[in-house]
Each structure stands twice: as C-alpha cells, then as structure tokens.
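Progress against Task 2.4 (sequence-to-structure conversion) is shown through the following example record, which the project officer requested during the mid-term review.
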Amino acid sequence: MTFAELLAELAASDNQVTVPPGWAQGRAGYGGLIAALVYEGMRQKVAAGRPVRSLAITFVGPVAPGEPMQVEAEVLREGKAVTQMFGRAVQGGQTMCIIQGSFGASRESVVNVQAEPAPHARPAHDCVEMPYREGVNPSFIRHFSVRWAFGDLPFSGSRKREMGGWMRFKEDEGEIGAAHLLGLVDVWPPAVLPHLTSKAPASSLTWTIEFVQPQPAIGNNDWLLYRADIEHARDGYGHAAAMVWTPDGELVAISRQTVTVFG
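Structure tokens generated for the chain above:
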C-alpha cells in the first residue's frame, strides 16, 4: 500500500489502521508513517482555515506491523485563531506515540522576515541514490528515493556535522501535504550515524517539526532538499536540527530530533 492509501484507510475505518510489513523499520512500524497517521486523526478535528503550525512528537514504543493500531485525537483548546490538539497511537491497550499539535489561522502582523536561502547542493540527478537491499535497509526505504548531497553515509566513520540531500516518494502520492512531509523528513537516518564505523541501533526519541505557512505547492515528482546539522551528541544521545526546501529554494519545514544511539 502507498502512503496515501494508508492515510485514506485510516479516515475510512473509524481511525483504525494496520501498518503492513512493507512499512516496517526493524521490528517496528516506520516512525514517519506512525506520526503521519496520528497527525491525520488530529487534523480531522480541526476547523477549516487553521493549518498545522507545529507538532511535538514522542515515540513511546514500537508499533508492531500487521496488528491493528488505533488513533485517538482530542481538542485541548480552541481559541480565536489557534487550536491546540493532542493525538496518540494506541496498540494492544498501550500508548505508542503521542503528539501535541498547534493549528493556527493567519494573523495580521508588521513582522515579515524572509527565511535564510537554501544551501547549495548538486542537482538530484548528479547525486548517488541510497539503494534498497533486502535485509540490509529497513523495509520502508523501498517506498522512497533518497539521494545524498551533504555529508557521508551512515557507519562511514565521518566527523562531519551535516548530512542530507534530496528526497521524494517512489509511488504516486498525488499532491504532497503535511502528512506526507512527516513521512519524507523521517526517512533520513539520524545525523550522528555517519560518525560510527559499524552498524548499531538508533531510534528517534522526540521530534518537533514546524511547517512554514502557507505551504508551497509540492507535486509528487518534486524533489525536496533536506539538510540536518548535529548540534550536540554524547552519552548515547544525539541532537540535530534540520530544514527542508523546495527545488526552488523555498523553505517548507524546520525540524529538530533527539535520538538514542549506541556504539
């Protein structure tokens, strides 16, 4: 099933969905998909004209592929311009993911600061694509095209702070919205993994992402540029900030993750 089909299945089945094995990340369902499904459940309860501004995501436990997962959403407060939401993914009676989200209408303001320009990167067609190898890469990688433009590959013993490149879906997803962006941004491995010299487990602990509004129109075949920079890493935890741009250099989202990493 495509990413869009899973989002549609959630909406058509009273907020219950089963993550297929093809969307697995080791023993768990792909985190970007889980976050997107919870976000979709939240968005359905928000009034029109209030796009998502920010999400604070915590991965509590692994969602098992092949087993039903329920999405719950609650309006915490609805003000004149901003709706505060809470959502979570539940499986087997246990909370697996929680999201606090802010959805807000536009406001009049004299403040207008343009984003910093996108970094220079080689075109996607000149970058090396991360191959999918059965049993080597996580299963969900088969659904994405990922091409390296910044930094080095995981487990290469690099000492660079930056990592990233171009990304898009392989299947036809239609117009790319906020839920799809969650799937795309999380496709990148933690920025600290290139610092290792051999394979070791790593997983996202917390993730915050802010969406620039109004969102630029993004087509299914458009490459998006992602760059993450390590801010600090020690004691088995890594902290990195990232940004996402359109091919024309328009800022789309700002992301920050804390990951656990061994090795």
